[in-house]
């Protein structure tokens, strides 16, 4: 009986292996001959299994001597296992080929995306037109999507200016920790890299001051067509070229005013050893330095955002978030997630990084650096 049971299990193993081979033939290469061959093996083994069943029911079990039967069934079992391994290997090889094709497609997509990004970067660095500005629809009704896109566009240049500002500080042997502490006194950051947000807060505070006043309070109120014209002219302009050519324009006055307010004389003197650049800007000249070019580009983008806001013909306001205020998802968004990941139930505002905006009923959240609430 043990020899019979052994033969039964060996036959079942053969059927399983043959059926797996049939499936492989059907779903992999659709080879008709392979399908027919595998199908015939399954049929033969099922017939053998049926014969074994009938012989058992009729109690007419005939077999070789037990030791021979055990040896034959062991060989059959091993053969079935080998066939299953071969099928598994073929299946894995087929999956590898599919993954290779997917990888090749992804690499091609990556190459295309990289080329597109390089093209955008070249257009940005040359002061050329940025694609998102081409899609902005100027109308009297506020469009949150357009405003947020241009705000992101402006913030990118803010961070680029901060990068060159901090680089100048390091070259001039400034103590960055002391500079950060002067902006946010005695503030504890989660890690050193996040001290960058202190500089972003410092620059944004000055660049967005009087944003909600027509022309940043540098001129009398203008009508909507004026801001549409400003947006159209400056969205594709080179910032330094425009400033050099039209220093007394609204944008020229804005750039000059913000530079003199943001860049302290002692700061410039430590960077360059003199105040020549400041004197040139103050006399409506245009310094031919990378530092000023990056600043002017930042000013251009903030000015464009300002002009866009005033094309909406709705009340424009900027709201600031005070330190130690409770966090509100409606009006604020955190620039980091550490305070949430630390499991703090209550969090407060550590300091404001970017102010929030309200245009009519539209609210654009302020970006803030969070801290755990003090109990």
Automatic annotation (TrEMBL):
Pfam families in alphabetical order: DUF641, GIL1_IRKI_C
Keyword field: Coiled coil
InterPro entries listed in its UniProt record: DUF641_pln, GIL1-like, GIL1_IRKI_C
Protein name: Uncharacterized protein
Source species, domain of life: Eukaryota
Residue ranges of coiled coil: 75-116
This protein's record includes keyword Cell cycle: no
Organism per entry: Daucus carota subsp. sativus
TM segment ranges: none
Any single GO BP term: negative gravitropism
This protein's record includes keyword Coiled coil: yes
Chain ranges of the DUF641 domain: 1-120
Record-annotated GIL1/IRKI C-terminal domain positions: 318-369
């Amino acid at each position: 009986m043990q020899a019979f049971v052994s033969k039964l299990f060996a036959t079942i193993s053969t059927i399983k292996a043959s059926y797996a081979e049939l499936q492989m033939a059907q779903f992999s290469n659709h080879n008709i001959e392979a399908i027919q061959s595998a199908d015939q093996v399954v049929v033969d083994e099922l017939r053998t299994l049926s014969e074994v069943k009938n012989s058992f029911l009729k109690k007419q079990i005939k077999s070789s001597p037990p030791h021979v039967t055990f040896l034959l069934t062991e060989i059959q079992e091993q053969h079935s296992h080998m066939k299953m391994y071969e099928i598994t290997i073929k299946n894995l090889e087929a999956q590898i080929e599919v993954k290779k094709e997917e990888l090749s497609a992804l690499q091609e997509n990556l190459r295309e995306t990289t080329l597109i990004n390089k093209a955008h970067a070249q257009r940005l660095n040359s002061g050329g037109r940025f694609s998102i500005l081409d899609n902005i629809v100027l109308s009297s009704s506020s469009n949150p999507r357009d405003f947020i896109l241009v705000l992101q566009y402006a913030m990118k240049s803010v961070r680029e200016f901060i990068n060159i500002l901090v680089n100048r500080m390091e070259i001039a042997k400034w103590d960055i920790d002391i500079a950060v502490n002067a902006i946010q006194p005695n503030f504890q950051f989660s890690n050193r890299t996040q001290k960058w947000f202190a500089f972003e807060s410092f620059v944004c505070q000055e660049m967005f001051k009087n944003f909600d006043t027509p022309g940043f309070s540098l001129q009398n109120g203008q009508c909507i067509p004026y801001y549409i014209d400003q947006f159209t002219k400056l969205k594709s302009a080179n910032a330094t070229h425009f400033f050099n050519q039209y220093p007394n324009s609204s944008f020229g006055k804005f750039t000059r005013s913000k530079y003199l307010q943001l860049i302290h004389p002692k700061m410039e003197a430590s960077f360059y050893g003199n105040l020549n650049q400041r004197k040139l800007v103050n006399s409506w000249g245009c310094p031919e330095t990378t530092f000023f070019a990056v600043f002017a580009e930042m000013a251009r983008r903030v000015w464009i955002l300002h002009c866009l806001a005033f094309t909406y013909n709705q009340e424009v306001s900027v709201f600031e978030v005070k330190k130690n205020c409770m966090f509100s998802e409606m009006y604020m968004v955190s620039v980091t997630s550490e305070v949430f990941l630390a499991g703090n139930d209550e969090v407060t505002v550590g300091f404001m990084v970017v102010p929030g905006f309200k245009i009519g009923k539209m609210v654009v959240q302020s970006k803030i650096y969070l801290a755990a609430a003090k109990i």
